[in-house]
């Protein structure tokens, strides 16, 4: 039987709750579709950092780089680590050092009553391709007296590969339009996004292209989310737009993401964070983690299992088994059990 080695970093806050709820669901779908998950739980988290001063040791990094097929991560962030040092090393560290340049964040309306906006909602179904290795996230800059300086790095290589990934995905999925978003009217460096977008688009003549400044896009996403298919943007705008996207279709409890570099092991994490106010209460929504698991299985070439998981989540939503963030009264474990029940 095919086995996949999955490293699990449950992390902080609700991270462990949603990951441990999602794992039996993933195991169930794996058994149904004839493969196995070899799970290895790693302790890296705020607790571990506070206890040992260790964020992500070098040996563990090499192990994650060389020996696993995927990394499944809950969330990192803890009020006891206000500088977020451990998350910088673990989460951003893995994205950067594994060169996972694609942050793939789907936004899909899974049930009509989850739409945040009034009015007749048709399908909301778009994907954000967030550049994941550059921008302000590199943390370059300095504090010079009263000047706090942050540098935003945009390289031709970095911009080109994320734009190309967006077009290739669009083409493979039969999508007809790619929207690129930047702030070139205020940030001169964003010229590279404009130029690169034009150049890459020329190789995809069947796909319509459009550009939106990010402020205008934020408005248009709220007004008319149905018209978007594929959005490609920089690291920071992708972070912000992905929470906006989640908000359009039910919130962070449903939003999945994958950090990818084609041909390499990926890092799979819900869009949400550690949600400190919810931690330990047993009511966090595990659906984002389960849907993140679907992205993981898709990457491991189990598309049927991935679709099956998505179907089971949709049916669970339709049956009204929902955590409080979606207006329901179910607990984390009830929702996970309801999803698993629909996979037998
Ligand atoms: P957050 O995503 O953790 O939570 C914001 C709010 O959204 C929560 O208070 C909760 O009301 C709701 N929410 C989020 N996930 C939910 C779920 N699964 N079920 C039900 N409700 C849910 O964002 P935040 O409060 O800005 O950040 C908290 C910490 O998490 C910070 O330390 C932040 O840096 C970190 N963070 C980590 C990641 C990550 O590890 N990928 C992502 C975002 C934020
Ligand atoms: C996300 C998170 C992270 C980010 C934080 C925790 C650094 O918000 O994955 O969306 O900004 O990328
Ligand atoms: Mn975010």
Key terms for this structure?
single chain, about 350 residues, alpha/beta, Isopropylmalate Dehydrogenase, 2 domains, two-stranded antiparallel ribbon, 11 helices, 12 strands, about 40% helix, about 20% strand, binds nicotinamide-adenine-dinucleotide, binds 3-isopropylmalic acid, binds manganese (II) ion
CATH architecture of the largest domain: 3-Layer(aba) Sandwich
Strand order across the biggest sheet? 2-1-3-12-11-4-5-10-8-9
Low-confidence stretches: none
- Largest sheet, described in full? 10 strands, mixed
Q: What is the share of helical residues? A: 40-55%
Average pLDDT confidence is 97
**What is the N-to-C succession of helices and strands?**
EHEHHEHEEEEHEHEHEHEEHHH
Specify the overall morphology: globular
The quaternary structure here is single chain
What is the number of helices? 11
The CATH topology assignment of the largest domain is Isopropylmalate Dehydrogenase
Overall strand count:
12
Domain unit count = 2
Give the CATH superfamily of the largest domain. Isopropylmalate Dehydrogenase
List the ions, cofactors and other small molecules found in this model: nicotinamide-adenine-dinucleotide, 3-isopropylmalic acid, manganese (II) ion
Assign the CATH class of the largest domain: Alpha Beta
């Amino acid at each position: 039987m095919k086995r996949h080695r999955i490293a699990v970093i449950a992390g902080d806050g609700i991270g462990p709750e949603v990951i441990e709820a999602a794992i039996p669901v993933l195991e169930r779908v794996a058994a149904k579709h004839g493969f196995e998950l070899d799970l290895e739980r790693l302790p890296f988290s705020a607790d571990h950092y506070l206890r040992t001063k260790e964020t992500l040791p070098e040996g563990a990094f090499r192990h994650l780089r060389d020996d696993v097929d995927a990394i499944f991560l809950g969330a990192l962030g803890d009020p006891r680590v206000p500088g977020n040092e451990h998350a910088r090393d673990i989460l951003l560290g893995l994205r950067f050092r594994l060169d996972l340049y694609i942050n793939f964040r789907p936004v899909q309306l899974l049930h009509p009553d989850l739409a945040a906006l009034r009015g007749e909602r048709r399908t909301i179904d778009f994907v954000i391709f967030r550049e994941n290795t550059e921008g302000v996230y590199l943390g370059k800059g300095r504090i010079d007296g009263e000047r706090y300086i942050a540098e935003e790095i945009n390289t031709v290589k970095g911009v080109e590969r994320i734009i190309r990934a967006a077009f290739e995905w669009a083409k493979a999925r039969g999508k007809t339009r790619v929207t690129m978003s930047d702030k070139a009217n205020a940030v001169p460096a964003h010229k590279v996004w404009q130029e690169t977008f034009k150049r890459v688009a020329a190789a995809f003549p069947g796909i319509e292209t459009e550009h939106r400044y990010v402020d205008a896009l934020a408005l248009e996403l709220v007004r008319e989310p149905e018209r978007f298919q594929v959005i490609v943007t920089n690291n920071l705008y992708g972070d912000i737009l992905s929470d906006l996207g989640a908000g359009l279709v039910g919130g962070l409890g449903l939003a999945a993401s994958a950090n990818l570099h084609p041909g390499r092991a990926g890092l799979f994490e819900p869009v949400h964070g550690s949600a400190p106010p919810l931690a330990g209460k047993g009511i966090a929504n595990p659906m984002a983690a389960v849907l993140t698991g679907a992205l993981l299985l898709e990457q491991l070439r189990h598309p049927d299992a991935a679709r099956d998981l998505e179907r089971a989540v949709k049916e669970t939503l339709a049956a009204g088994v929902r955590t409080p963030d979606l207006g329901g009264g179910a607990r984390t474990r009830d929702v996970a059990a309801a999803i698993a029940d629909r996979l037998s």
